[in-house]
Design goal:
Blueprint: H1 8-26, E1 48-53, E2 70-77, E3 87-96, E4 101-104, E5 120-126, E6 136-140, E7 153-155, E8 167-174, E9 177-184, E10 195-202, E11 204-208, E12 213-216, E13 220-224, E14 226-227, E15 233-238, E16 248-253, E17 256-261, E18 275-283, E19 301-310, H2 329-334, E20 341-351, E21 359-360, E22 373-377, E23 390-394, H3 402-405, E24 417-424, E25 432-441, E26 444-447
Parallel strand pairs: 1-8, 9-18, 18-19, 23-25
Antiparallel strand pairs: 1-4, 2-3, 2-5, 3-4, 5-7, 6-11, 7-8, 9-15, 10-13, 10-16, 11-12, 14-15, 16-17, 20-21, 20-22, 20-24, 22-23, 24-25, 25-26
Amino acid sequence: MGQVILHPQKQSIMKNFYLLALCALLFPFFSSCEGELIDTNTASRKALINAYVGNTKTRASNNGWTDKDSIGVYMKKAGDALSASSVLADNVKYVTDGTSSFSAADGDEGILFPFDGSKVDFIGYYPYKQSVANFIYLVDLSVQTNQEAIDLLYSNNSSGLNTKEPFVNLIFAHQLSKIRLNLQAESGVSLAGISVKLTNAETTASFDLSSGVLSSSAGAKDIYFSVAEDGSLAEAILLPTTDFSDMDIVLTIGELTYVYPLANSALISSFEKSTQYTYNISLNPAKGEMAVADGGITNWINGATDNLSLSPKSDYNSKGKTKENPFTVEDAIQNQGQDEVWVKGYIIGYFTGSSKSSFTTSLADESTISQSNFVISSDADETSVDNANVISVSLPTSTKIKPYINLKDNPQLIKKEILLKGNLAAYFTIPGIKEITSAVIDGVEYSK
C-alpha cells in the first residue's frame, strides 16, 4: 500500500487535535499546556447560602421565612474588616422560597469563592436594600404598619470559608427591640379602633455592617403601634435604649385617653437589642377577660413582662378639641373621621391638578399655585406626600378665611405653622382635613 500524504492544513488540524487531547489528559495537574500547576480541588464554586435566626428558621413577625424574603450578602477577605478594599462580593441579593435555603436573585450574580482557594468571611443583613452606601444601613422606624420591612437582622458568623467548604450558614440576630401590649377592657367594651403610640422615641439610626454597631440619630418623635383589628394586641419595633425620659405609652379610644410613663415600671428599665418586652394592660381596670392575640414570635429573647392597670388621664381628653391642645399631623392621620378638631402643622406645598401626583412645593409658577388646597406636615422641610407625616387640606369658600391662608395670594406662608379646625377626612386619596371653620396663622385667627 502506498504512503498517505496529508494536506498541510489537515496536518495542522491533526496536530491541534493531539495537543488538545494531551491537555485534557493533563488537566487535573495543569491549568493549560503552557500554564502553571493548579489544584482542581480548589476550583471556584458558588456559595450555597442558608439563613437562620437564632439557629431556627424564624425571623421578623411569624414562624418562618416568607416566599420572596430577601437578604443582602457580602463576601470579604478573611479576617479583614468590611471595606472597599476587602469586599469581594458587594451587597448581593439572595431570595428564599420560604425555606432556610437562599439563592441569588439574579442567577448570573451568585457569589463565587476565590479560584485560588483563599479563605473568606460572609456578612448578611435583612431586609435587603438595593442601595447601602459605605456599608451603612439606614434604619427608619417611623411607620410600623409593616414590621417585617423594618426589623433589622444581622449575621457575621460565617468566617474562614473557602471553595472546599461552600456551605454558608448565616445565623441572624435581631438588632432592634420589640414591645408588645396585651390589651384588655371591661366586659362588653370593644377595643376596636384603639390608637396606641409611644411618645418621645428615636425613629432613625445608622447600622454599620462592618462593626455591627447601631447609632441612633437625634430627633425624637411619636411612634404609632401596629394594632390588631380587634384592639387586643399592639406591637412596635424600637431602637434599643436605656433612657425612658418623657417616653409614655398613650392609648386613645373614643373620648378616653390612657397614659403610662415607661419610667414607672419596676420590672422594665431599658430596651435591649434582640429582646421582646411585654406589657399586660388592663384599662380602667378590666372586670372580664378579653382574648389576647398571639404575636407568634418565638425567636426574640423574651424580656420582662409587666402588668399594668390604667385609668383615663383627664388632661389628654381635650387633645384635638382645643387650639391650645391640637392634634399633631400624625394624630390627625390616626383619627380620620373625627369632626371639629384642631390640627397643627407646617404648610409645605399644594396640588396643581386633581391627583396626588400633582403635588409640588414650588412657587415658581404663579399660574399653577392653588387657591383651594395645600398640604401640611409636622416637618416644615417635608417634600413628599407619600410619607406618614402629611395631610391634605381642603380650603373653605368662606371669604373670611380663604383669602388670608391660601398660597396663591399668600406665598409667604410656605413653611409657616398653621392651626386649622375642621373635619378629618381623606382628600386627594391621602388623610386630610376638610370643612375648615377656623384657622390661626402668625397669631391671628380667621373664622367663618
